[in-house]
Amino acid sequence: MHASKPTVSPLLWVPTGYFTMALGYVMLTSVTAIMFKNLGMDNGKAAEYSSLLILAYTVKPLFAPFVEMYRTKKFFVLCAQTLIGLGFIGIALVMALPNYMAILMALFWAMSFVGATQDIACDGVYVTSLDSRAQSLYCGIQSLSWNVGPIVAAGGMVYLSGWLHVNVFHHDAAVFGPNWIDAWRIIFFLVGGLTVLMAFWHARFMPDGARAENTPASVKAAGAILMDSFVTLFQKRGVWRMLAFAFLFRLSIGFLEKIGPFFMVDPAGKGGLGLTNEKLGVIYGTYGLAAVLLGSLLGGWYVARKGLKSTLFVLCCAVNIPNVTFLIMAVYLPTNLYLITAGVMIEKFFFGFGAVGFMIYLMQQLAPGKYTTTHYAFGTGIMGLCGLVTGAVSGHLQEWMGYVNYFIFVMVATIPSFIATWCAPFYIDEAAANDPKAAQAVPA
């Protein structure tokens, strides 16, 4: 594809573009779980409902070729951000209605597909508006900006919801139920307004994005490309072991992702730590995410120095073994915030450290070939499918087992990850995988 020369500095749209992507994604797939919990929903339904919103992001490779066909990539970014912003504002309005939950879930469901479209289009603007040198130059800014989104959403907005609930609406933070509606309506108004503001900003500063050389000219052509990408994927040597790795590497994390925050806010009588939303936002959404960022940086350095093949199993251990901190906290129920914060940061740091191995493996072993970008997207889609399945059942399992037994189950769930990692094939030399010309020459 040919990169079009940007007319404005990428600093004016890359940070805001990826921040807006992350803000919508985290609000829809993570923060909604906390909101459902606050509104009095049990752990099973809260985890299930929020996890189902991951589906659109899992299947987005299926409609990516069709997004390429019409108008410009910027057009889809602006439309998506406007619709997402108005959607969040609509959710805030709908929550004032009686029996609002069915409408709320329909809006969330529609917004998740719009959000997935935004991701496709924004990535497209990035890779077609910047040449290879500029892409490398702004890659760190892109990653950092995306990670600011979870800090604002899972940290700032969750904190603010608790602060509003107690200090503005004068409700008891420990009581879950309809009284939380007022605080969360304000949160959705704020997020919606911010997203619409970003759409206006990008209308002024984001470039259109160039069209890829193989852009389909019709729906039939797009379908043919999609089918061919499927066929060539499954013709790859060792593809089933690669896909097993993609699904299983983060299996235990999928079981932990929704239940960890629930454990933090549930009262001691239910086996939880009884934290408020404010404390959860600071510990989980700020210190925890800072630990993920630090771990990711060090993990990337470690892989670059030692090579992926010799480090992949170590990275798998880093992702899975520190989950034991939640089991320890469930057994002893600490009340000291420093100990709780330390437990979360340990798990998050090592998750960030090890998770880089997953992405690099997909880039170097699964993706190379005729459809590098599409096959990489399929790999991340399999990862998303794991998160959807494990998240949907995690709350029901936790309610059945209790927190201590559930966290024991999470540790048992690490075993498939170790097996899949040990059996993950390496058919492509790492140096060749990092050479674009060599990657294109890899046979299906």
From TrEMBL:
Signal peptide, first to last residue: none
Any one GO CC term of the record: membrane
Keywords, sorted A to Z: Membrane, Transmembrane, Transmembrane helix, Transport
MF GO annotations: transmembrane transporter activity
Family annotation (PANTHER family): MAJOR FACILITATOR SUPERFAMILY DOMAIN-CONTAINING PROTEIN 3, SOLUTE CARRIER FAMILY 33 ACETYL-COA TRANSPORTER -RELATED
Pfam families assigned: MFS_1
Keyword Transmembrane helix: yes
Keyword Transmembrane appears in the UniProt entry: yes
Record-linked InterPro entries: AmpG_permease/AT-1, MFS, MFS_trans_sf
Annotated transmembrane regions: 12-34, 46-63, 75-97, 103-122, 143-163, 183-201, 243-264, 284-304, 311-332, 338-363, 375-397, 403-428
Species this protein is from: Massilia atriviolacea
The name this protein goes by in its record: MFS transporter
Bilayer topology term: Multi-pass membrane protein
Compartment(s): Membrane
SUPFAM superfamilies per record: MFS general substrate transporter (SSF103473)
Domain of life (superkingdom): Bacteria
